TrEMBL record:
<dbReference type="Pfam" id="PF02746">
    <property type="entry name" value="MR_MLE_N"/>
</dbReference>
<dbReference type="InterPro" id="IPR036849">
    <property type="entry name" value="Enolase-like_C_sf"/>
</dbReference>
<dbReference type="InterPro" id="IPR029017">
    <property type="entry name" value="Enolase-like_N"/>
</dbReference>
<keyword id="KW-0479">Metal-binding</keyword>
<dbReference type="InterPro" id="IPR013341">
    <property type="entry name" value="Mandelate_racemase_N_dom"/>
</dbReference>
<dbReference type="InterPro" id="IPR013342">
    <property type="entry name" value="Mandelate_racemase_C"/>
</dbReference>
<protein>
    <recommendedName>
        <fullName>Mandelate racemase/muconate lactonizing enzyme C-terminal domain-containing protein</fullName>
    </recommendedName>
</protein>
<dbReference type="InterPro" id="IPR029065">
    <property type="entry name" value="Enolase_C-like"/>
</dbReference>
<feature type="domain" description="Mandelate racemase/muconate lactonizing enzyme C-terminal">
    <location>
        <begin position="237"/>
        <end position="333"/>
    </location>
</feature>
<dbReference type="Pfam" id="PF13378">
    <property type="entry name" value="MR_MLE_C"/>
</dbReference>
């Protein structure tokens, strides 16, 4: 199975630059001179080549070391959005999105935004997240000017996250963070999601300060990409309707959530194929099968002449042997790639997946690893042969926009599904990336324009700036 071309030198991601900075003038701009194409990352990825002329770019790593962050204000607010209808994933049902929006404004007047998703299968809620964000925002607002690198490090120390997601991970971490590891009430997943939201906001604010769109900051490979759409756990009749709808909207890949009942799942997949005969589809079992059942699904689908391009998390996250067994059968007998999602909780898990060749693809989410974590993973797996997938979890276009910038800018994600906002009954962000739903540049993520938009939150007035291209997208909270 072919792998993505991750063999590019580190400079392709870091953009060596010549920078002139006025160090004590936080209102000042950077003068940047550099060039990079990153085109070697383009092959077989879900991004589309940018149509814009080449432009100088300053990479994120360099920027973290030279840009001084002086936070004027920071806050978190509820971000509640209704769904068109309840969404079922595995055994959990989501009836409304109750996330948290994070806003950071720098002393130069530039602001950035992030988002923390709250899902029903965790043991914390929006109020818990708001309190965590409040403490972090208080810290940021009261702190002295520091480099972006240092403030991101401080945030990571406040919110240890995926470093400790697995028991093995906890056992192998540094002694200085033992109090977190030993506290049974400490929720590493929660803290990682809060950290990710804060990282988004800080990096977005800094990008606006130097007038560089995020996709360029992350690598500049492309300003557009294609995304799959998701069909959550549902009946075969509803699956048919959704597949037909997504077909008309231009989606070419569908991710189908299954894993409840073997026979019912087969019927759903047949309905999806009938509703969208020419689509590629990703089968996401969400840990729902035993290894034997997962292999049986592959066999039955093969008999029907239906073959998914990916089989995501077929077995329980801790069933490493079962995951490897299913992957071997899928890979060698049916030519299907197996994806690790829930089994991919931290860097140690990823290392195990690579070393033991347990899967062909890993699914990494912005809310699970944060911006810096994803950049580290990309570097980590570039020579391993593993393919990369980026996904979203019940997030609005605040977070999926950042994920889109990240995937388009890096250009190394072969599989993309950041379509969560199409499930909402309303869109709190007016404007943002262009698209015809499926292709974000046309219906995906066309990061090519600047508009003034409204971001609606009750009783909250502020101005946000989301950099989506050579122009700013000005959004107003009402």
């Amino acid at each position: 199975m072919a792998s993505l071309g991750f063999s590019c030198p580190a400079s392709s991601l870091l953009f060596s630059s010549s920078v002139v900075n006025h160090p004590r003038n936080l209102q000042g701009r950077f003068i940047v001179s550099s060039s990079t194409s990153g085109s070697e990352l383009m092959s077989k990825s879900a991004v589309s080549e940018t149509t814009e002329s080449p432009r100088t770019s300053l990479g994120l790593k360099n920027l973290t070391e030279i840009f001084w962050v002086d936070v004027h204000s920071a806050e978190g607010k509820p971000l509640n959005v209704g769904l068109q209808e309840p969404v079922t994933i595995g055994c959990s049902t989501l009836e409304q999105v109750e996330n948290v929006a994070v806003r950071v404004e720098l002393s130069n007047g530039c602001a950035g935004w992030g988002e923390v998703p709250v899902v029903p299968w965790v043991n914390w809620n929006q109020a818990t997240v708001l309190e965590k964000v409040r403490k972090a925002c208080e810290f940021l607002s009261q702190g002295p000017p520091v480099t972006l690198n240092l403030v991101l490090h401080q945030i990571s120390e406040m919110f240890p996250g995926t470093e400790f997601a697995s028991e093995k991970g906890k056992e192998n971490q540094v002694i200085s963070l033992v109090p977190f590891v030993l506290d049974p009430s400490y929720d590493f997943d929660l803290c990682m999601k809060v950290r990710a939201g804060l990282e988004m906001a800080l990096i977005d604010a800094v990008a606006n300060s130097i007038d560089v769109p995020l996709w360029r900051l992350f690598g500049g490979v492309s300003n557009s990409l294609s995304t799959a759409a998701t069909i959550s756990t549902t009946s075969s009749a509803k699956a048919f309707d959704l597949a037909a709808k997504f077909c008309k909207q231009g989606f070419k890949t569908l991710e189908v959530k299954l894993g409840r009942n073997l026979n019912a799942d087969i019927e759903v997949l047949q309905a999806v194929r009938a509703g969208h005969p020419h689509c590629s589809f990703i089968l996401d079992a969400n840990e729902g099968y035993t290894p034997k059942e997962a292999i049986e699904v592959l066999h039955k689908l093969n008999e029907e002449g239906v073959s998914p391009i990916l089989f995501e998390q077929p077995v329980h996250r801790d069933d490493w042997r079962g995951l490897g067994d299913v992957s071997n059968v899928a890979r060698h007998k049916y030519g299907i790639s197996v994806v690790a999602d829930e089994s991919c909780r931290d860097m140690i898990d990823i290392q195990k997946l690579m070393e033991e060749n347990l899967v062909d693809v890993i699914n990494i989410k912005l809310s699970k690893f944060g911006v810096l974590g994803i950049l580290e993973i990309v570097e980590m797996v570039k020579n391993s042969g593993l393919e990369l997938m980026i996904d979203s979890v019940a997030e609005t276009r605040l977070a999926t926009g950042v994920a889109g910038h990240l995937a388009a800018g890096l250009g190394c994600f072969k599989y993309v599904n950041i379509s969560a906002p199409i499930l909402f009954s309303e869109d709190p962000v007016v404007g943002g990336y262009e698209g015809t739903v499926a292709f974000i540049s046309e219906i995906h993520l066309s990061l090519k324009f600047g508009v003034c938009a409204q971001f609606v939150l009750p009783n909250y007035f502020a101005q946000i700036w989301m950099q989506v291209s050579d122009m700013d997208m000005c959004s107003t909270l009402v």
